[in-house]
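ARCHIVE CARD
Drawer: 12
Card no.: 0347
Subject: one protein chain, sequence and derived structure
Cross-reference: see card 0346
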Amino acid sequence: MSDVRIPAYAKVNLRLEVVGKRADGYHELRTIFQTVSLHDTLQLRSCHQSGISLRIHGNEALSKEAVEKNLVYRAVDALRRELKVRPGVEIVLRKNIPTGRGLGGGSSDAAAALLGFLQLTRKKIETQPLLEIAAGLGADVPFFLFGGCALGVGKGDEIYPLPDIPRLSLLIVSPREIHVPTPDAYRWLHSPELASLTKFAANHKLYGFCALCWSAQGEGLSNDFEAAVFRRHSRLDRIKRALLRGGASEALLAGSGSAVFGVFPSPAKARRAVVGFPHDQTFVCETISRKRYERLTKSALVG
């Protein structure tokens, strides 16, 4: 019996711009993804029984219907069908990334499940069909097949690798009492602002965004959701200001929230800043380059 263990890393968005509304109802995004060392862990094991068994540690017990809707279950199910694999698989997911906080935990779990299942079965698949499976699971999932620093366009599912940034020390603060559903965050964006984005203005915004992606200096962290989300949840604004007072050079809402992260000069300074958030979940972590991500997510088979 073979066994694979694989980490599923969280992400932050160094920049996130909502360019406008698409014809298909989704929003057109321009974002810079960056993987960080905070992670969940998946263990996959071959078994003689057919089907998929998924257990999740760190969450409350889930019903059979909820398990089958989980992105890990759906990812492995889709890949089994694509590869026409008959033997069953047992999966244990150990959660550490807080859910619903803009850190991409569910999408990362799904990508890790795809990569782990390929390792477990020693199967090969072309990149394009794997990307199609990933995109069908969620807009962020394709990014997590590669990690590192990358530009995301379209719904965020069209991925272009960017040069790795220098390693950064981060403190992620996840308030326990605040949850921001992504659909709500989109609704909170000022609709008059979106409506005023003419084709020229959108193109101008895109050109400027792409230029700074390849700039050695960049223009700092930015997130279009931040103002709208902070208006509804003023405590998130206070967390950001507390991170800056605590020594962070920059701080930003993570994705559509509700986590907030700060960039610190060193891990030691990030750890010292933790005392300012006694009632929140806190995670001191660092950014992960693409090469390191690739190495860490290609675990050797055991057993």
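Annotation on reverse: The radius of gyration is 19 Å. Residues 169-189+224-286 form a domain with the Alpha-Beta Plaits fold (CATH 3.30.70.890).
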